[in-house]
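W.,

You were right to be curious about this one. When I first looked at the sequence I had no strong expectations either way, so I just let the prediction run and decided to look at it fresh. Below is the sequence, 155 residues in total, followed by the output.
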Amino acid sequence: MKKVAGIITAIIIAGLIATHGFALVRIQTLTSRHGYEFAETYRQIEMLESVESLSVLELSEHRARIYHSGVAIIHGEERFVAFISDFEMIDEQWETVWRDQVRGRTGSADHFMWRHWWLYDDSVGAVVAGGILVAFLLISMWVIVVIVDRKRKNL
């Protein structure tokens, strides 16, 4: 019985890792294929002096959602800041149509670790929801196995 529980637990953990991994792989693939198109778009964000990280979160023919992080000079000191920006293709160039600064508890993005799947991507949200559903089904199957096993032992 412990072996079955261990296998089911391993499957659940693998499913959750795969769900998260899918989102990361998807974003890394978009970034490696199309990141160069957005290399200079950080200049449209007034605060950024330089960009340290850029991730393409979503991309279609005419719209894109990009994560920029880099260094800004705020009140005379260098600070790490991060932005999520939406771009539209206007006259064959990517133009910012919306942006929001990512803020940590201290009011900046210092030491902020981006979790790609948790925000700003509906398709990845659907994958996470699917992963949760699969986990629920696996747990339900495990409960059924436990109940059946106990009934067999009682007979």
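Here's what jumped out at me. The chain has one domain: 2-154. And, maybe more interesting for your project: The first helix runs from residue 2 to 34.

Coffee later to discuss?

I.
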